[in-house]
What we know:
Layout: H1 4-22, E1 26-31, E2 41-45, E3 58-62, H2 65-68, E4 77-78, H3 79-85, E5 89-90, E6 96-100, E7 107-113, E8 122-124, E9 130-132, E10 138-142, E11 147-148, E12 157-159, E13 161-165, E14 176-179
Antiparallel strand pairs: 1-4, 1-14, 2-3, 3-12, 5-6, 6-7, 7-13, 8-9, 10-13, 11-12
Amino acid sequence: MIKPYLKYLLSTFAIALSSQVFAQTPVEVKLVAAFEEDRGYCLDVRGAPGKTAPIGGLRTESCKMYSLREPGEDQAFDMENIHENNEFRMSKFGDKCLTLYKPARGSFVSLETCDGRTAQSIKLNANGQISPEIMPELCLTIGAVTLPGGGGKPLHIWRNVTFEDCDTSIHDRQSWELRAVWSGPQEATVERPYKPNPKAQPPSQ
């Protein structure tokens, strides 16, 4: 018969081991090209800070690690799941997964409960393209139109994101990388389209 204190030690060890096995590194899913945003463009839950909702799906917005020094809740994906399971999971945001909403060019990028469905099997390829395994000819693509956000200093900016035909002529809008640690601003390639808001404050968490 196992004594109570030994049971306690065994259960504690099992919990610790489980947490190590399932521990995930939070990362931003960031566009490689900076364009006009030297903080970078990151996949982001659509909506104003504190008012985001999975029903709105994903877009790209100014990466927020410049002020938080770690991926924010609405931009944090689980790195190991991306590499090992081809699954873009946001465990910090209610266990939601990037989902191909419709298997067609121009598909909305939805954020839905992770359940292992085929539409959530999405791969980060060696060339930086992000493609659904059921339609590998489609690539996650940032839009060409820049719009002003609602916070940040300077003002955050954002662009839409959809699944489009993979196309080498727009590779800079289809090439992504993972970032776990803030490494400083990038060199923007074009001028920002919106003037900084002097009253805006960095986002808080």
